[in-house]
Amino acid sequence: MNLRNKNLIKPPCLNGKSIEHKRQELKDYFLQTWAQYESLFSLINDSKAYYLRPEPLRHPLIFYFGHTATFYINKLRLGKFIDQRLNGKLEAICAVGVDEMSWDDLNSEHYDWPSVNEVIEYRQQVSVLIEKLIDTMELTLPIKQNSLAWVILMGCEHERIHIETSSVIMRMLPLSYLTANENWPTCDETGVAPENELVKVDGQKVVFGKPESDDTFGWDNEYGYDSITLNNFETSKYLVSNQEYIAFVKANGYQQTQYWTNEGQQWLAFTHATMPRFWCEKVNDSGNKAYYQRNLLNEIPLPLNWPVEVNYLEAKAFCNWKNKTYREGNIRLPTESEWLCMRNQLEGDLIDWQSVPGNIDLAFYASSCPVDKFSQGNDLFDIVGNVWQWTESSIDGFQGFEVHPLYDDFSTPTFDGKHNLIKGGSWISTGNEAMKHSRYAFRRHFFQHAGFRYVKSDHQPLPNLASNHYETNVDICRQLHAHYGEIRSNKPPTAKNYSQQIAEQVLASAEKYQISKQKCLDLGCSVGRVSFILAQYFSQLDGVDFSAGYIRHGVNLQQGNSIRYTLENEGDIVDFHEVKLTDVDLPRGDNIHFSQGDASNLKSIFSGYDIILAQHVLEQSYDPRLFLKKVHQRLNANGLLIVVSNYHFDEQQANKSTWLGGIKVNGENVTGFDGLSAILTPHFTLLEQHQLTRTLKINQRNFELSFPHLTVWQLK
Amino acid sequence: MNLRNKNLIKPPCLNGKSIEHKRQELKDYFLQTWAQYESLFSLINDSKAYYLRPEPLRHPLIFYFGHTATFYINKLRLGKFIDQRLNGKLEAICAVGVDEMSWDDLNSEHYDWPSVNEVIEYRQQVSVLIEKLIDTMELTLPIKQNSLAWVILMGCEHERIHIETSSVIMRMLPLSYLTANENWPTCDETGVAPENELVKVDGQKVVFGKPESDDTFGWDNEYGYDSITLNNFETSKYLVSNQEYIAFVKANGYQQTQYWTNEGQQWLAFTHATMPRFWCEKVNDSGNKAYYQRNLLNEIPLPLNWPVEVNYLEAKAFCNWKNKTYREGNIRLPTESEWLCMRNQLEGDLIDWQSVPGNIDLAFYASSCPVDKFSQGNDLFDIVGNVWQWTESSIDGFQGFEVHPLYDDFSTPTFDGKHNLIKGGSWISTGNEAMKHSRYAFRRHFFQHAGFRYVKSDHQPLPNLASNHYETNVDICRQLHAHYGEIRSNKPPTAKNYSQQIAEQVLASAEKYQISKQKCLDLGCSVGRVSFILAQYFSQLDGVDFSAGYIRHGVNLQQGNSIRYTLENEGDIVDFHEVKLTDVDLPRGDNIHFSQGDASNLKSIFSGYDIILAQHVLEQSYDPRLFLKKVHQRLNANGLLIVVSNYHFDEQQANKSTWLGGIKVNGENVTGFDGLSAILTPHFTLLEQHQLTRTLKINQRNFELSFPHLTVWQLK
C-alpha cells in the first residue's frame, strides 16, 4: 500500500505550562489551517470557477474563499477583541452563507462578489492581524471559552469545516476548472467489494458529551452529559459500498415511493434523482452504458468497493428496501449512541494517535478508498474515516448545553428535529471534525462526503436521547422563566418568586384554617412550579392547565428532564436557557398528576379536594362563570378555594359578556372582584385577601409588573 | 294675579346641630320628592300610556317610573351600604336610560317592561327601605360626599331631575292619556308679548364653581374654581317669546340653511322640523290655519307672550337670522359666564328665599307664563325660571373637578364639547335644579322646557372658559400619569419619578463636565416634565416631540392650565385625573419653547446646543440613523449628547432595516447600544452610562417596568 500517512499538526491542547510555547502552537495551527485552505483553493485553475454555482442552493466558491477570513474579523469584533474592520464590504458580503438547512429555499439575491485577488489580498491582511494578535495577546492557561485564544481556535476549526464543505462544492465543478497536484492524491485502489455482513456489537452504557475538563477545543453542542444503556446489536462490518447500493438503484429503488419517507418523496419530486449525487451514467469505452463516480479531482468508473455517498433520505430508503427485499426486518441506520458504542472500540482520539487508524485527517487520500482497507475495533472497518456515516439521530443539545456567546447560532438553529447527525468523519475531516466528541448535523437531504453503515437491532424505541428542543412559544417561555429561570436574573429585584408567594399563601391558609392536606387541585398550573412546591405537603396534587403546551413542561420536569427555552434579549436576539427542578431545589413530586383540562368545563373526576387553587383562571377562561358556579361541588366540607387573579379581562381571550368585571353592569361599575364575590358568596365565606407581586420578563430591559389579588374562600 | 307660590320643602343643609333633626329633614325631603314624582305620574289616566314611545329616542315612561327607585338600590349596593337587591330584574331593566346624548342613535332593543302595578309595589318597597335607612343610618354632620346621607340626597336630586325630564316626555303624549288636576295648574295668562329690547349689563369678574364649603348638595360638575372677567354687554330684557320667534318661522327660517350650523342642518335633515317641537299648526274655530302650543296638560292657541321653547340649534339659527335681517351683528346666545353675571343681580339662592322670585320650583304653574311676568335684577325678566335658557357654553369641569366615585358617569360623558349648558331652570325645576350653581347640559338638539334669551357683545373670543376635556388617548394618558400623576399612586414603590431621574443625570453631567447651561434641547420631550425641570437651570430650553398630541399638554401646563386624563382602572372602568405643574412643584418655565418636530428630519434651527437630550427617540423614530448621523452638527464645542433608550425596536414603529440593533448584521448579533455606538463613535466620546428605572401604569394592577439605558456622549 502506498500509504502516505502524513499527519497534520494536531489541534492544540487547552492546557500547557509554557505560554510562549502555546503561542507558537496556536500560531502553527492557525497557519497550517490557513495554508491547507489555500492549498485546496489552489486546485482551481481558472478564476471563473469561483463564480459558478454548481449547487444552486449554495454560494459560489468566492464566498467561501473569503468567508473563513471574515469570520475571524466578525467574531473578534463581536468579542470586542478588535475595534476596526479591515474591509467592511467584504466582511459583510462574505459573512452569511446561504442557509444550508433547506433544499427548497432558492436564494436569488444579487451579490456583488469581490475579485479573487481582492480576497487573496484580504486574506493576507487578516493573516497578519491574527499572527500579531497571537503574538501579543494576553494568554493564560488553560485556554478558557471566553478568551481570545478560544476565538482563534474557533476560527481555525471553522476554517477546517469549510475545507471540507468547499471540497464538496468543488466536487460539483466541471473537472476542467481543477488541476490535481501531489498534495491531493486520489486513491487508485478500485475493485470488487467484499460481501457485507453483520457483526455483533456488545451493548453497554454509552455516555454522551465532551467533559468540561477536556483538553481540546469543542463546539457548544459537544458539551453536557447524557447516557443510554444499549442492548447488544449487530452492525454491518463495512460501510455500504457502491456495489451493495447499486442493487437498490437497479431494483428501481428511486422510483418506488414505498421505500421513501415523506420527506424523501418530496426530495425526489424536487430533484428527480435516480442515483447518488456523485454518480453518473455514461457510455464507456466499450460503447456500453456504465456508471462513473465523480471524485474531487477526477471521474472514474464506479469504484464498487468504495463507500456509496448518499444523503440520509437515500440511506434510509436503502434500509427500507433491504428490509423488504430480504425480509430480514430491523435493518436501519445506527443512532448516535450505537455509533458511539462502536467508536468506543477504538482507543484514544486524534490528539493521542501516533498514526491515524483510517482514511481521515487527510492522512492518506484526497478521496474515498475501499471499504475493506482500514480494519478498526472488533472486526469492523471504517468506524472513523473514509466517508461520514448518517445516523437516525437528529441533533440536540445534551443536558447542560449552553451556547457560546460569540457563536450563538452555531448549533441552536439545528436543534429542530430536521438535522441528523453524521459521525466518523471523512478523508478530509481534520482537527475537531476528526475527533470523537464532535457532532455535526445537516438537513437530511444534504450532501457531504457521506454514506452509511447499517445496524440490526431489536431495540424499541430507537436508542436515541429524548429530543429536547428549545421551547420558543413566547408566552410559554416567559412562564418557564418566571417559574424556574428568574433566579439567574438579578433584576428586577423582587422579593420572592411569584409561584413561591402563591404556594406559601396556600400553605399558610391550610395551616391557619386547619384544612386537611389530602388532595389539592392546582388549576391553571401553567408550567407547574406551584404544583411541585405544594406536592411536598399534600398527599395528592392534580395540576391542570388549559393548554397542553404548558402541561408538557411540568410532565417533563417531573420525569427529571431539563427544559430548554429561549427568551428575547433584545429584538431578534434571544438568550438560551435550560432549567430543571433541582435548580430550584424541588423534588420531582411523584404524587402530582398533570393533565390538560378546561376550567370552564372540568371533568367531574376533579372533585373531593381540600383545597382548590385557581391561578389566573378567571381571566384566561372563555367563561369563568361556568367554573365558579359549580366549584363548591368539587370541595370537601370546609374546603378552601383560593383564587389568584389580576382581573385583566381581555376581549381577545373572552367575549365581554363573560367578563366577571371591568365593565358596567346595569350602568354601574363592577370590578372583577365584585363579580367574583357575587358568584361565590352563596356558597363561600371570604376569609382573607392579599396582594401579590409578579414580574414577568419580556426581554433584557422590559418586564411586566403586576399586583395580582389572592383571595381565600371557605365553603360554607 | 293668581299666584299660588306654594314653596316646596327646601333642600336640606349639609350642616346642622341636631342629628335627629337632620334625619327628619332628610326623610321629609326624600318623601316629598317621592310624592311629587308619583303626583306627576298620577296625571296619566291609562296604563297604556306608560308603554308608548312618543319620543323614539327615549324609553317609555314605565322605565322612568321605575328608574328613580332602582337608582337608589343600585347606588346603595355600589357604595356597599346594602347587600341585597329587592328585585334584580327590575333593577337591571330600569337601570340604564337610552343615551340622551345622541339624536341619531335609534334604540331598537327589545325590553320586557314590568307592569305599572309591579313598579308601584316596587316603589313602595324601596321607600320603606330608604326610610328605614334614614332612621337607622350612622349620621354625622356635616354630611360628607362619601356618606350614606349623601347618597340619599343624590337619589332625591336624581328623582327631581326625572320629574322634569318625565314631564317633557308626558308633554309629547296624546292629551287623552292625561287628566289635569289642581296640583298641576296651567297658566292662563296669554296675550301679546312686549317688544323685546337690549338692556345693559355691567361687566365684572365672574367666579365659577360651588365652593367645597357650600352647605348644600351638589353634583360633581358644580365644584372647582375658575373665573372670567367680562366687559359690559347687553342682554335681551325678556326671554325670546313665541311672538318674537314666529317672525323667524314665517321668514322661512327653517328652510334656509344659511342660518343653521352644520349640526343644525343635519338635525333639520333628520327631523324635517318646520317650527318648534311643541308648536303645531291647525285649522282653528274660524276655519283658518293657526299655531297652537302643546303644554304638559293642554293645547292652546299659541301664547305669543310666553317664551318660545326650542333647542340650541334653533336658538342659534334665530340669532343668526336676526343678525342678518337687522344687520345688527353680535347678537348671540349668552355664555355661562354672561348668564352668571346676570344671575349675580339676584340675591341669595333657593334655600335663602322666602318666596321664589320667578316661575320656578313649581311655585306657580305647571307651565310657562308670560315673559314679562317676573321682573328680576336690574330691569330684566326671567333670569331664573319660566323656561331654561340655552347658552353658547359647552359643559366641562372646572379646575379641580373630581368625579363622585358612586356616579362617575354623571358628568364625564358630557365633557365632550357636544353638550351645551342650559341655565336658569324652568317652572318644574326644583331642588338642586333651581339653584345658582347647578349645571345641566344636553346635546344641542335636545328638548327640555327650554328657550333662550340673547345678548349683544363685542367680546372676542366668546367669554367661555377654555375647554379642558379628558385626554383619552391611552398612550398619552400613560405618559401624563408617569410624568405628573404617579405621585398619587402608592404602587409600585419606585425610588424616584422617571423624568426626575433623567433630569438629574443631565444636570449632574452638565456639572461634572462643566458644560455651559445656555441652551438645551429635550428631544422626545413627550408631555414635558423633563423640560420643566431643566428649564430651571438652562437659559433656553427647546422641548420637541414628534407628536403634537403630547406637545399640546406641555404647552397647556406652561400656560398654567391643568390637564385632565383618564387611566384604566380595570377593563372598561377608568379613573379620572387632573394634574397641573404645581402638583409637582414646578414653575411654568417661560424659557421653554415646545414644538412639534421629527427627530429624523429636524429643522436646522435646532442647533447651537450645549446639551441635547434624546429621550426614547431612537426606538420611536422611523429612522434613528438620520438623527444620529448629523446630531454632532447641532452641538456646541464639547457639547453633550445624552441618549435614553430601552432599545425596544418594533416593526410597528419602524422597518426592521432601520433598527439600530436587536438584529443580526452580517450574521452577528448587534444590540441597540452597539448600533448607537457605531454611529456616534466618529464624532463622540462615551463618557458614562447608567441604568434607569421606569414604571408605566397600565391599570390598577398592571405596570410596565423597564430599565432604560442612559448614555452620555461628548462631542470630540
Query: Would you tell me the structural class of the helices and strands of chain A?
Result: alpha+beta
Question: Greatest contact pair?
Answer: A-B, 43 and 43 residues
Helix count from the secondary structure assignment of chain A = 15
Provide the spatial order of strands within the biggest beta sheet of chain A: 20-17-16-21-22-28-25
The level of helicity of chain A is 25-40%
Biggest sheet features of chain A: 7 strands, mixed
Please describe what this structure looks like.
The structure is a homodimer of 716-residue chains. Chain A is of the alpha+beta class. Chain A has 15 helices and 28 strands. In chain A, a hairpin with a 4-residue loop joins strand 26 and strand 27. Chain A binds chain B through residues 74-75, 77-78, 91-92, 95-96, 408-409, 491-492, 569-573, 646-649, 659, 661-664, 666-669, 671-672, 695, 699, 701-709, and chain B through 74-75, 77-78, 91-92, 95-96, 408-409, 491-492, 569-573, 646-649, 659, 661-664, 666-669, 671-672, 695, 699, 701-709.
Please supply descriptive tags for the structure shown above.
homodimer, 716 residues, alpha+beta, 19% strand
